[in-house]
Amino acid sequence: MKSNNTVLSLAMFDLLHEWILTLCLVLAIAAVISPLLLLMGLKYGTIATLRDKLVQDPVYREIRPTQTYDYKKDWFTDFSKRNDIDFLIPTTRVSSSIITIKTPNSQKIFDLVPTTSNDPLIKENGGIIPQDNQCVLTKSAAEEIGVSIGDKLTARITRSREGRQEFVQAKLEVVAILKPRAGTMARIYTPLKFVIDVENYKENIAVSTRNWPGGTPRPYLSFDGIMVMLAQKLDPVASSGLIIGTGINGIELLERKSFVETTGFELPANLVAYNLYNSNNFVQTASYRALKRKLRGKRAIVMPYVKLSLNLPTKTQFFGLSISSKEQQRLDIKLPWGKLENDASYQKMQQLLLPNPNIETVKASFIDTKNSINFPMQVIGLSPSKYALAPVELLATLRTGSQREITFNDGKFLLARLNYGGFRLYAKTIDDVQGIYTYLKEQGIEVSAKSDEIERIKILDRGLTRIFWLVAIVGIIGGIAALIASLYAAVERKKRELSIMRLIGLSRYQVFRFPIYQALAMAILSVALAVSAYFGLALIINLVFSSDLDMGQQICHLPIHYLLSATLMTVTVAFLSAILAAWKTTQIEPAEALREE
Questions:
Q1: Would you say the C-alpha torsion 419, 420, 422, 423 has a positive or negative sign?
Q2: pTM for this predicted structure
């Protein structure tokens, strides 16, 4: 151990003795290290600053659905288990989220957005999570209606019920106004429960907790089309007029063969038939009423119809119609039920006419992508059609079931609460966005994300990394070459001294460590000098750009582990560079000192 300390002391005293040469070599190595530290600091600081802006701004972590789908509660439960999701909450359909906000000075229509605890958009933009009867506004929404924190708003929710407009009102307190970066759209954030209550009211469902009136959520009626039968053909202008303002976009004159194929019974010779439809959706009762008004005085038979299959238990083709007794006489058919009723009882709806009846009570079922419903029906006679006949109210209710979930309970069809139409989703980090985006696309859900902005940061990061390593490799090679040459030359120059060290009893292995100690010492001094130069230059750079940065951000910055890695790398390179010079010392014999004497 004593001899080891002797070699170390001799190596350090030798460096001190040749302090000018030592200083030159230390400065040369530091001149290689300090620009690399500065370049790495700029690269890391720039990318970290840009990433901070993206990470701290939830807008860049948001993944938004671009189309309305039908999301069940179970979907949210399963999807929220992913580790890369920071926040997930369901949203209602757009038509159910529009409300009117009234203040003493203005009245505006806004989009209602649900929120709950841990909402990053609110928490990271100076907001407070609203509780019941509270709301948070975006900056643009607050400016549009001229309100501030603490003000009371009146939310007016309207609906159309049986042809008349109804509304209720709710008081909301503004508890926060978000920063402009939270979004430029005028939006109001309220608890999810309030958003669902608004949707239920619009769906004519009573909200008892708020004393908002409503009825039993019976399914509305949806028709495949409407048959219009007249004594004579309409001229082109009159037929086009049946489309305008009725919610119908198609009309065709039916040939008698087509009429039989559709309805299953013959069209009387003294009538012509038109089929009116909406090619984009089913026809609603509002269209039926509009047509009745347009055809008033023309003795027209206006007959909404639905054609679908039910299981009895085997699949049976049904045609649904409900017309008055006078209209039945004109069509030469006889039905045990009468005209269309919006609120028909199930006693009427369960009546059934079969082409070949042989049973009186059947258990019918309707199976669709959204429903599987079983309900009883009563066979009461022979069908005048080649199809089984039922009141159109039944089939129109089931047709609605192909779009909305419905149930049958205690002799009533009930409209189930709407499933959610969308969601608000935020990834934990910007690096998680692409994985969630890809997963949703694979599930057939159309979404959008700020992938382009995130990818640009990643491309910049990769580009700067390549530049850094290109410069670093050139600098490291130059530093290694300079260090090897210097140490090797020092050994050649000090052959006499090194041979004397051998002569006084030091082994080859001990002399071998002499240039290595010197290389490590110079490496440590060089790193200390380079780090000091880096901190000085970094301070100047950050001061120059301080006006363009947020509090706590730096354009040039290196974490401590980067500095420790740079020190370790420099020491390692110095050690490897000294190996050749150290090997050269082992070739020096003690006799060389005697020969020189």
A1: negative
A2: 0.57
Residue 231 makes CB contacts below 8 A (sequence gap 6+) with 270, 271, 272, 299
Phi, psi dihedral angles at 497 (to 5 degrees): -65, -40
| 3-state SS class at 488 | helix
Give residue 50's identity as a one-letter amino acid code: L
Using alpha carbons, select from 314, 291, 304 the residue that is nearest to residue 395.
304
For the chain, the residue count is: 597
What does R_g of the chain's alpha carbons equal in angstroms?
42
Pairing type for strands 187-191 and 134-137 reads: antiparallel
> Could you report the per-residue pLDDT of 368-379, keeping only the tens digit for each?
766 788 888 888
Close Cβ partners of 271 (under 8 Å, ≥ 6 residues apart): 229, 230, 231, 301, 330, 331
- Strands in 248-300 per DSSP E: 250-254, 272-277, 283-284
How many of the other CB atoms lie within 10 Å of CB of 66? 9
Mean pLDDT of all residues in 100-104: 84
**Which is more confidently placed, 521 or 584?**
521
pLDDT single digits (tens) 299-349: 999 999 999 988 887 888 999 999 999 999 999 999 999 999 988 888 899
- SS3 of residue 198 by DSSP: helix
